[in-house]
Amino acid sequence: MSDFTEFSFPSKDGVHQCRASLWTRPDTAPRAVVQIVHGVAEYAGRYGHFARYLADRGFVVCGGDHLGHGKTADDGKYGYFGKKDGWTLVTADVRRLRVLMGEKHPNVPYFLLGHSMGSFLARTYLCAYPGTVDGCILSGTGQEKPALVAAGKAVASAICAVKGPETVSPLVNRLSLGAYNKQFAPNRTSADWICRDESVVDAYLKDPFCTFMPTAGMFRDMMGGLQYISSQEALSRMDPSTPVYLFSGDRDPVGTNGEGVKKVYGFFKDHGTADLTMKLYPGGRHEMLNEINKGEVYADVLAWLEKHI
Question: How far is CA 83 from CA 89, 139, 220, in A?
Fold first, then answer.
């Protein structure tokens, strides 16, 4: 059976201590390290079931709570990265955890697994720190049209300018997370888009670390991140020898029901990624690691990891 522990490391912002979760199997030499990069309005601890699955099979699994999320937001400022350069700060924290875990487990294969916003951060990481991981798994990723991303960033930036980046705006929420539920009407809850497992949805809605709305500042930062990871400048920085695996549900609104995932797949293909795999699960929604067929998804991720160790 696997062990679970928590630890902290200093954030790049020079203020916060990032809280991190760690799952290991005692007295077992690790086959590889998998670093989870979580999404908006959640935290690394939500991945415990999947992390234990990997840990019981000899992997070390870790994940940090981003600025403004989980136990890192001990100042109560949820959904807020920082006054400026928030996306750069959070990406740098992903890097800090990677370096820290690499020092603890030298010469062990190292993989990133980013979900949703975490997949955007993982893609940013691949551009900012090329060649520093042995593979990257992208769950629930996507890429909105450039005009829509620019418009969202402009709206959020305007709110930041007038009311400040810590402002929580219902308008921003409607433009982002609030819009995803529409395709599943009539809705049972406000989070039907997450997955088809009602117990997971209900637990999510009861979790105090998952019920906050993003600030205008965080939305602005994320839109800037999406602009960056779709730019030729950023994409050209990636190491084409880094294997990439994309998986998503074909009913995931974040990935535009698969079309956005295919677009991201095209980014990697066009920039020479030699080892590139994509899988879309029929009927699956946003959180495939929590879906009703999660056993199949777990096995597919494990098979990809074992192929690349």
Answer: 11, 28, 11
pTM over 0.85: yes
Name residues whose C-beta falls within 8 Å of residue 15's C-beta, 6 or more positions apart in sequence: none
Distance CA 75, CA 150 (A): 30
Distance CA 218, CA 87 (A): 8
Closest CA to 40 of 94, 95, 120, 113: 120
Q: Name the helix (H) or strand (E) containing 5.
A: strand 3-10
Query: Which residues of the chain carry a pLDDT beneath 70?
Result: none
Q: Are the C-beta atoms of residues 234 and 183 closer than 8 Å to each other?
A: no
**Residue 4 CA neighbour count, 13 Å, CB half:** 13
Give which of 88, 86, 90, 32 is closest to 57, Cα–Cα: 32
pLDDT value of position 12:
98
Helix axes 48-55, 294-308, angle to 10 degrees: 40
Q: How many CA atoms lie within 13 A of 265 on its CB side?
A: 18
Q: Collapsing DSSP states into helix, strand and coil, what is residue 3?
A: strand
How would you class 14 by CB atoms within 10 Å of its CB: exposed for 0-12, middle for 13-18, buried for 19 or more? exposed
Question: Residues in the chain, how many?
Answer: 309
Assigned token pair, 238: 């990636």
* pLDDT value of position 132: 98
Both structure tokens of 51: 């992390």
Q: Are 97 and 64 in contact (CB under 8 A)?
A: yes
Can you give the pLDDT at residue 307? Answer: 98
| CA 249 – CA 300 distance, rounded (Å) | 14
- Rounded distance between C-alpha atoms, residue 144 and residue 223, angstroms: 10
Per-residue pLDDT tens over the stretch 25-79: 988 899 999 999 999 999 999 999 999 999 999 999 999 999 999 999 999 999 9
